[in-house]
Amino acid sequence: MPPPKRREEKPTDAFAKLRQCFDVIKEKHTDPWNWHEYLDDEPSEKDEDEGDPEALSLKPKARSNVEKLKSHLLALVSQLNTAASAADMCYYHMCTTPQDMKDCAMILSTSGDIDEELLASGDVSPQKMMAALQSKLNTANEQVAELSDQVVHLKDSLVESRSICQERFLRWQTAAMAAEEATMRLHWMKFAHDNGLRREKALQDTYRDLYWRMVRAKRLMIYKARQLLRDRVFNCNKKENLFYSFHGFCEILRTEKEERLRREYEEQRNAIEFALRNEVRFLLREGALHGGNVERLAVRCSTLKRDRRNLACRLLHKNRLYEPLEYCLWVWELWQPIRGQLALEKALESEQAFRDAAEQQLVHTSAQLPPLVELIEQLKLEAVAEKIAHDESRRELTADSAKQLAALAKQLHTHRVEEVAVVSQLYRLDMEDKDERIAVLEREIAEDKHISALKGMVVDLESNLRRAMDRRKQRGFVVPPASTDANKCAHCSREVTLNTWRGLPKSLSHSLSETNLRPDGPPPLLGGRGLDLPGLPGSKG
């Protein structure tokens, strides 16, 4: 089997490959932002599985920025080599087939805004390119304006639809509430209807029971009446019974005849009424149908009369005498087509002037393009350099801030340790002071106990002395008269008696136990605790 023939490469394929290489180089290598990722910090590796050597060996290692940059440069070299080989093939094809030069150059000349149709027109001057780009820009601006109008219209439609949705939602809620209320009402109506049906059924059963009872009672009464007539009436006065029976029979026949005549008259009247009612219904239906036909006929007649009158008016206007103004009207009507041509000629002259001005502006613009491109490239380089310098300064500031923060944290830790030591020393001194104060207070409390015991002994001695004096002295039954008028009433000048029948001795008026003496109580023990007086040290009060 012979080997397959290799596909012969055409010149356009070689130039398309070269253009593809240029696009790849521009997209991945020549733009400045393709190299910004290598300016970041080195990736840090966090060993989470330090105890598992197998996991560490299988875990992929993070590549550094240098390794990434080397790989990028190797890819750039391979792409440049591919582009160089493609350029060599293009040169070869231009040497062998120069007649395809225009098609091949058109492949390299096309871009996103410049297509093959514009290049194939023949005029590829910068003015023509700028004019084509300007027309595309105008078209794009018009499309943007239309899209903006559509956005505004859609926003208005959205607001309106939201209001409609809100209104419909409110209506739906109202309808839902009404449906719920109707459901509840229907439920209770059904419940009441069922109750009514049950009551009606019970009433029907009761009525049927009563009816059959009435029928049974009626039959019994008829039976008893027949027995009574047979036994008591018909057996006596047979002639009278026969006479009354005959007249009764005649009356029944007369009544039945009148009833039959009445029924026949009603049936005849109902038949006539039914026939007349059907006839009237038929006539009314036919009148409605004929009324529509008559209305359409009247409308048609009025339309024909109006058309005939308009036709007569047109004929009279056509056969009238001509007026001078009509000739002017004809001239004006003939001038209307020429007027459009004159306007087009003026518009053409204005457009030619605008085109000349635009060509002149394009010439000036094309002359200014190379300096602008150089200035833009220089500004891009300066912007990249400034960004690099900014990143470096930011890193330096971050490092300085970290150092200062570490130093501050260290100083804060040292200050905290010193502060804890000072606080512990103050606490120790405070505890020593409080211990000394507690010892002093305990000593004072012990001394106060001895003083209280001594005072209790003095009070006991005073009490014993007073009792001894009371035994020797005669007790008075009334209060002795006072030397002054202090105990006399201000109204009647009589002396006021005290509440006790015994006068107090003057020798113990200033004693500590004077205010709480109880002569009728038991004598205190010698050496015992005295009375507790408020305000004295050692007392409970």
3D architecture notes:
This protein has 541 residues and is mostly helical. It has eight helices and no strands. It has helices at 11-30, 53-58, 65-96, 101-109, 116-120, 126-233, 238-318, 324-472. Helix 1 (11-30) runs parallel beside helix 4 (101-109) and helix 6 crosses helix 8. The longest helix is centred in the last third of the chain and has 149 residues, at 324-472.
Layout of SSEs?
Elements: H1 11-30, H2 53-58, H3 65-96, H4 101-109, H5 116-120, H6 126-233, H7 238-318, H8 324-472
Helix pairs in contact: 1-3, 1-4, 6-8
Question: What descriptive keywords fit this protein?
Answer:
541 residues; mainly alpha; 8 helices; 0% strand; disordered C terminus
Structural class estimated from helices and strands = mainly alpha
Q: Note the run of SSEs as H and E.
A: HHHHHHHH
Q: What would the average pLDDT be, to the nearest integer?
A: 78
Number of helices, where a helix is a run of at least 4 consecutive DSSP H or I residues: 8
Number of strands: 0
Structural Rg: 68 Å
Strand content: under 5%
Taking the alpha carbons of the first and last residues, their distance comes to 134 Å
**Biggest sheet character:** none
Oligomer: single chain
Shape: flat
How much helicity do the residues have?
Answer: over 70%
Residue windows where pLDDT falls under 50 for at least 5 positions: 497-541
At a glance:
The chain is an all-alpha fold and 541 residues long.
